[in-house]
């Protein structure tokens, strides 16, 4: 690898799989049994609020039963020890990167542990069992809080910050994502057009593998610590 100063890392559900959280498109994936259209859209929330809130309540509850794995811990080590620029962009709505100690990161698709009020826009941390009936900390309403999750058709968060980081990057690393959902899936092409070195660490080839300079296949708990050791040794 050439001289690397600034790194952007994109993570997906695959980095949390070995912690015991389902991925979306694998066997028994989150969206089997639940059609995407039934869950992850503003229309679904309006049409069947109880179903959508229950889906996210269940996933939030699962967080309390799992721990970060070696992949999350390796990225947190990189965050502590890497002297150059670093931004971890996660598509995941779990809090495992933070619990492993990552700081230089953002959730482009929102967080299970956050909610916002559709009436007044107030955003609040929420770790409870059921969102429905919880009063908004802003306007006090009891049935207007929704999961702070980016649904299909909604604008992902912090796009400008992500684009700025990609504009400064020398290395783009994608970990544990199928490359199925845009605009995240397009970042590798953006990186290639900008002449940035690109590396994919994934259990199996993804929809974006064609665009990476290098793809390493295997579990994140093995590939990520090995890569972090390698890049810190540069
Ligand atoms: C938007 C939160 C307007 C919810 C999610 C072109 C440009 C822009 C938009 C679009 C476009 N074309 C189509 C669209 C619309 C749409 C889209 O992409 N549709 C797809 C289906 C074609 N996109 C949107 O609606 C987005 N917003 O477009 O706004 C706009 C317009 C222009 C520019 C900007 C914006 C919003 C999409 C966000 C939806 N919300 N998540 C929740 O979590 O419940 S999406 C969700 O699925 C994830 O967040 C992630 O983004 C996506 C993919 O999931 P992955 O994380 O990749 O997980 P998956 O199961 O698929 O794969 C797991 C991978 O891990 C596998 O490859 C597997 O091999 C690997 N793996 C498994 N185990 C391991 C492992 N790897 C390593 N180790 C292991 N142990």
From TrEMBL:
Keyword Acetylation tagged: no
Cofactor note text: Binds 1 zinc ion per subunit.
Domain Deacetylase sirtuin-type, first and last residues per copy: 1-234
Cross-referenced Pfam families: SIR2
GO molecular function, one term: protein-succinyllysine desuccinylase activity
Cofactor: Zn(2+)
Residues holding substrate: 56, 59
Stored InterPro entries: DHS-like_NAD/FAD-binding_dom, NAD-dep_sirtuin_deacylases, Sirtuin, Sirtuin_cat_small_dom_sf, Sirtuin_class_III, Ssirtuin_cat_dom
Protein keywords: Cytoplasm, Metal-binding, NAD, Transferase, Zinc
Catalytic activity, reaction form: N(6)-acetyl-L-lysyl-[protein] + NAD(+) + H2O = 2''-O-acetyl-ADP-D-ribose + nicotinamide + L-lysyl-[protein]; N(6)-succinyl-L-lysyl-[protein] + NAD(+) + H2O = 2''-O-succinyl-ADP-D-ribose + nicotinamide + L-lysyl-[protein]
Compartments, record wording: Cytoplasm
Listed HAMAP family: Sirtuin_ClassIII (MF_01121)
Family per similarity comment: Belongs to the sirtuin family. Class III subfamily.
General function of this protein: NAD-dependent lysine deacetylase and desuccinylase that specifically removes acetyl and succinyl groups on target proteins. Modulates the activities of several proteins which are inactive in their acylated form.
Name of the protein in question: NAD-dependent protein deacylase
Organism in which the protein naturally occurs: Rhizorhabdus histidinilytica
Taxonomic lineage from the root: Bacteria, Pseudomonadati, Pseudomonadota, Alphaproteobacteria, Sphingomonadales
């Amino acid at each position: 690898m050439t001289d690397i100063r600034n790194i952007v890392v994109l993570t997906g559900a695959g980095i949390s799989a070995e912690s015991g959280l389902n991925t979306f498109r694998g066997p028994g994936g989150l969206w089997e049994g639940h059609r995407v259209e039934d869950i992850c859209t503003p229309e679904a929330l309006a049409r069947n609020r109880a179903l959508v809130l229950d889906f996210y309540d269940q996933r939030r509850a699962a967080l309390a039963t799992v721990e970060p794995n070696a992949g999350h811990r390796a990225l947190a080590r990189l965050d502590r020890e890497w002297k150059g620029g670093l931004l971890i962009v996660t598509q995941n709505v779990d809090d495992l990167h933070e619990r492993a100690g990552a700081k230089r990161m953002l959730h482009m698709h929102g967080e299970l542990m956050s909610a916002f009020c559709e009436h007044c826009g107030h955003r609040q941390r929420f770790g409870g069992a059921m969102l429905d009936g919880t009063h908004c900390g802003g306007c006090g309403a009891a049935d207007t809080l929704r999961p702070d999750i980016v649904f299909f058709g909604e604008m992902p968060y912090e796009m400008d910050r992500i684009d700025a980081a990609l504009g400064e990057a020398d290395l783009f690393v994608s970990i544990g994502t199928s490359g199925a959902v845009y605009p995240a899936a397009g970042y590798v092409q953006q990186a290639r057009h900008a002449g940035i070195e690109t590396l994919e660490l994934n259990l199996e080839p993804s929809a974006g593998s064609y665009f990476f300079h290098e793809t390493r296949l295997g579990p994140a708990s093995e590939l990520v610590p090995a890569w972090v050791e390698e890049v810190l040794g540069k």
